[in-house]
Amino acid sequence: MSNPDSLPDVTPLKSKPDPEHPKPFNTDDIDEEEEEDGDENDVEYDDEDAKGEVFGEPNRLKPQSREAQFRSEKLKMDSLLQRMQSGPVSVRVHDVIIKGNTKTKDHVIEAETEVLNNVGSMQELLKASQIVNLRLQALEIFDSVKITLDSGPPELPGTANVIIEVVETASPLSGQIGAYTKAEARSSTVEGSLKYKNFFGYGDLWDGSLAYGYDHSAELSAGVFLPRFKGLVTPVTARAYLLSQDWLKFSSYKERSMGLSLGLFSTPYHDLAYNLAWRTLTDPSQMSSRSIRRQLGHNLLSSLKYTFKFDRRNSTMRPTRGYAFVSTTQIGGLTPDSRSLRFLRQEFDLRYVVPLGFYHAALNFGVSGGVVFPWGNGFSSRPSSLPERFFLGGNISPVCALGGPTALWGFKTRGLGPTEPKRQVNKENAEPSGVDFLGGDLAVTALADLSFDLPFRWFREKGIHAHVFACAGNVAKLTENEYRNISVQKFVESLRSSVGVGLVVPTSLFRMEKFWTLYWSLAQAKTGVWHASPVASEHFGSYIGCQQNFGI
């Protein structure tokens, strides 16, 4: 049964006055009536107080004291709660009244209240009111939302009116600035953003952001979010961006993209987006390998991306029960331009968490995979696009990351998969210049993680816990007819895996983690060599940092 006391800003149903007697005093409006009217002579009457006559005058009701009024309201509320405990209390919504919106259009608020039209009992009405409250707050355009449940017209018994009172934000302009550090990559970024809320009164959110990294990576973007546009049932988003990424250290190329992303359809489980971008790959070092040099130049990305996702875990940072699944399908090459990248990309991620019932312990199992392949004439002999390939490694937490094969503890960034020697600048010098990590067209990862509380009260109160993990993964090449040379046996033999223990220290700003790993390659099983590798990873998502919010 829903508990009305636990619902935020939802005032219980008020009883309708008896036709023969005045309406009882409403305790919810005590402060408001005193402040607005300032008249303490307004009294309510109750028929139980009419116990006598005044000589020479008709019978009159005696004023009801404030304490009696409060007791009367409390008895009625207790009676309603008892009825709700015994079973459903039939009620339907007669009208939804919106107050306080001076700039926001009514239809924006009404679109979030459609769930109220389907209620059939008081229990359902309380639950639906809570949902509406949360939805309105999620629009980020109101400072406060209050929902009051009032009785319907006397001629329509069993009905209720829902009164929604909103207070529009007093500071429509807000901002955020922060500095973040990727510990494993030894790089830092400074990020800032500005957001303007409800500019046209349609619940529209306009924002611009700028991020700059000390490794010369940068991103500039601006976008708009419309919760309801032209009667569409789902939000619409549009974002223009200019992106520069530096992968010289790992794969000897820089990537610059300028494009537009348009969200076409979005629900809690489904998301459909279109991306159009002009992308350029360059190699300022002129040391890239032959495979990288073949990818340099300009190309056009025109793709449609569909994501299906549901997450039933109780936490994304430290899940102790539940399950989650994500599937992403992307098709590129939706324009007739010859420079348009034509590819099919599919990836999935499955998680399942088993609670153990002691020390807040839980077993987290996960498996993810992905494949990318070009399409069109001669697709089997052409290479896949470099930025669309899969790269494994780095110290992003596989427990926190959900979306596909990206994270694998114990290996450096892009450290798994095919490699190729870089170009020799000085041919007289026989020393190698290093290798380029090329990524792969097929990627698979698996994870098993046991998290548990430490047997110290102070650690438990601070959320500090330990975990033991084992993960494995591999990346392989399929394009350029390489799929003919791959087999399940070869793929399994080249798996890379690691086991380790870690200590997690969550804070209000970031999640810090220190862990030690042993990594193992089945291809090296004959030597029987284990490699110990202590690795430190501090990340909020994948980094540590601090940020400051401000409003104007």
Task: Walk me through the structure.
With 552 residues, the chain is mainly β. It is 13% helix and 42% strand. The N terminus is likely disordered. It is found in: Mitochondrion outer membrane; Plastid, Chloroplast outer membrane. Belongs to the SAM50/omp85 family. This is POTRA domain-containing protein. Keywords: Membrane, Plastid, Plastid outer membrane, Transmembrane, Transmembrane beta strand.
What distinguishing features does this structure have?
552 residues; mainly beta; Ubiquitin-like (UB roll); Porin; 2 domains; 17-stranded antiparallel β-sheet
Topology (SSEs and partners):
Blueprint: E1 10-14, H1 30-36, H2 66-86, E2 92-99, H3 106-111, H4 122-138, E3 142-151, E4 159-168, E5 173-182, E6 187-197, E7 205-213, E8 218-226, E9 236-246, H5 248-251, E10 254-266, E11 270-282, H6 290-293, E12 297-311, E13 322-332, E14 343-355, E15 362-374, E16 419-421, E17 435-437, E18 442-453, H7 457-462, E19 465-476, H8 488-493, E20 496-506, E21 511-521, E22 531-539, E23 544-551
Parallel strand pairs: 1-3, 2-4
Antiparallel strand pairs: 3-4, 5-6, 5-23, 6-7, 7-8, 8-9, 9-10, 10-11, 11-12, 12-13, 13-14, 14-15, 15-18, 16-17, 18-19, 19-20, 20-21, 21-22
